[in-house]
Amino acid sequence: MIPIHDLIDKVQDIRVVKLSALTHYDATEPHRHNYFEIFIFDRGLGVHDIDFHPFEITSKSIHIVAPGQVHQVRRELDTNGYVILFDTSVIQSNPVVSNFLFDHMCYDVEELSPAYKFDDATGDQILSAANTIWKDYNSDNELKNEFLKNHLFLICISCLRTLEQKAVASTANSDIYRSFRRLLRNNFKEIKKVKDYAAALNITEKKLNEIVKSKSGMSCSGLIYKQLILEAKRLLNTDISSKEVAYELNFEDPAHFSKFFKSQTGYSPSQFQNVQA
User: Fold this and answer.
1) Res. 273 pLDDT band, cuts 50 70 90
2) Of 131, 161, 191, at which residue does a domain stop?
3) Percent of the chain as helix, strand, coil, to the nearest 5
4) What does pTM read for this prediction?
C-alpha cells in the first residue's frame, strides 16, 4: 500500500536532501505526500514513476512531483543530486512560480510533463545553484529561509522558460481552460456534471466543451472522468478499501463506483489493487 507523507520539518519552510551516488541499484517504495518535491539530478540514470507514468532520469534534469501525486524513484548507479521539499505556502508570494507549480497540481502528467531537461550551460547553472542551496541549508545563517526561497524561485523559472517555445499567447479561451482545470482539481469529488462547471465559469456547456476539446483533445466529461480515475488509482493504493474509495469520491454506492472504474479502465478496483500490490 502507498503511504502518504507529511513535511516533518516545521522549523524551516524548505527542506533539502542530498541524493548521494548509489553503490548498488536502489528504488524507493511508491508513495505520495502533501507537499512539493523538486528533484535536481546531476548525474542520472533510471526511471521515475509519477502518477503511474514512467519518466527517464537523465543528467542535468529536474523532475517536479506535486502534492497528492504517487511516485517512485528507481535510480541506478552513479545517480546523484538533490531534492527540495516545500509546502504550497512557500510559493504564494511569487505569482509566476505559484501559477507554474499549481498547474502541475491541476494538469495530469500526460498534459504537463513533470520532467525538464536542460542544455549543458543551463544545467551547470542549476547545479551550481543547487550546490549553493545545499551549503546554505546546512548553515546557521538567520536569513537562510529567504535565501533558499529565492533560489527555489529561480530554479522553477528555469523550468518555466523551457516551456516558452511551446507556449502560445494567452487568450480568453486558454484562460477559461486553465480556470476549468483548477475548478476541476478542487471540486471533482463533489461536482461531476459539465453543466455545473459551465455555470461556475459563466459560459454555456457547448462553449466549455468546445474550449476543452480544442485544448486537450477530450470532452469536458472525459476530463472529469479522467480526474476521478486518477484519484481513485491513488486511493486504491493506500490502506483504504474500494468501498471507502467510493465514498471518498462521493459515489452513490460502491457498486456504482466499481462499475464506473471498470468502464473507464477495463478492470475492477480489486484487480487494480492486486496488480499494484
Assistant:
1) confident
2) 161
3) 50, 15, 35
4) 0.88
